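look at this stuff:

>
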Amino acid sequence: MKLQRNYKFWFCTGSQDLYGDECLKNVADHSRIIVDELNKSGVLPFEVVLKPTLITNELIRKTFNEANIDEDCAGVIVWCHTFSPAKSWILGLQEYRKPLLHLHTQFNEEIPYDSIDMDFMNENQSAHGDREWGHMVTRMGIERKVVVGHWTSQAVREKIASWMRTAIGIVESSHVRVMRVADNMRNVAVTEGDKVEAQLKFGWEVDAYPVNEIAEAVGAVSESDTNALVDEYYDKYEILLEGRDADEFKRHVAVQAQIEIGFERFLEEKNYQAIVTHFGDLGALKQLPGLAIQRLMEKGYGFGAEGDWKVAAMVRIMKLMSAGMKDAKGTSMLEDYTYNLVPGKEGILQAHMLEICPTIAEGPISIKCQPLSMGDREDPARLVFTSKEGPGIATSLIDLGDRFRLIINSVDCKKVEKPMPKLPVATAFWTPQPDFATGCEAWILAGGAHHTAFSYDITAEQMGDWAAAMGIEAVYIDNNTNIRDFKKDLMLGNVVFGK
């Protein structure tokens, strides 16, 4: 599955013709140099494209509408080099529909103390022009990212790069289609939600299919294709027979290979980028999809267990946002399973019955075949591993009835103290920030789910910016959290976002 598209970001400089053609030539030259240097920096994940200096209502409106219809344009970066009368931007901003970044910078890093005169002052007015422009965008209530600092700064470039990845998540959200295999787990509240409102808010299409329609696609996979994929599994992963007959073990693995191929072909044919399954409705499938789902997630598909379509969509978006990232550590659906409550060693063991993405693995990845009480089917094959150490974020998008809320918890992933030889599933272990008790209490107060979309690579700031662009509430649980203030934040969210 292709995750990364050849997106570009337009660089639009605001100015006006009050100071003559020479000034406008300097503005254009400065903008070109900035764009060239940004592209040569190696920091930005996508190309920046310079657009003509915007000085009239007509050109601004035309440029923004061209950005709307250009499928390769994922967002616009605006910088007001000189004073740019902001009323000229109103129509363009009203009609613009993509992510927006305001780069508050100036061409020169230092005041030219020995030579500065009024010509220089008039031409280099970012401190003036950007405030005029910022006032109008605020008055119009338009969500945007503001990055402040000199354009040569590594920190500024990294902030632009980070926003670009958020912008991809915003733009691609409207392209996410989730295929539900059967329904969600009976009587479970948090995995459900308003799919119509989700499509209005996020652009997601969430469709259900009878499980046997997908099972037919699985059954149509040829033996030769299945065997070829099994051979790939055996080359790539450690095989842990653990006393099972080798031929019988391989037959169980082949079932997952057939499911992987059949599911992927069905997803591609129907143009879906995320999938949910439910152990309570497996139809003609011989096993609960385990290894197959893990491999699909590794390829970039979103996944949610027990019908959790919100998590499936969020995993897909976070995989898109981190696609192509150097030294990426992985993104996966996870579930809070059980606690370690030993003082000083508190944490949450993360796992699921089968379906954890191997992108988060550290060390060897093995295939096991073990009985599963859920699903009433054959013993399913699955990939088993432990996750990496380091910081990450766990996110939960919940439906509160009158609105959506995104909960973002910064967590510290650790190694468990001892092996767990009898636990035949992939695992992660983390302590939520700021500490176990406060993190868990805040999560429960906010209404967080037991399934999460987790990533080592996406930051809390990026997901908060995504939520802001979507017009939904975001709450943060991190090292700055205390319960008294957190409760106030939730009450404020009820006032601002509640209907």
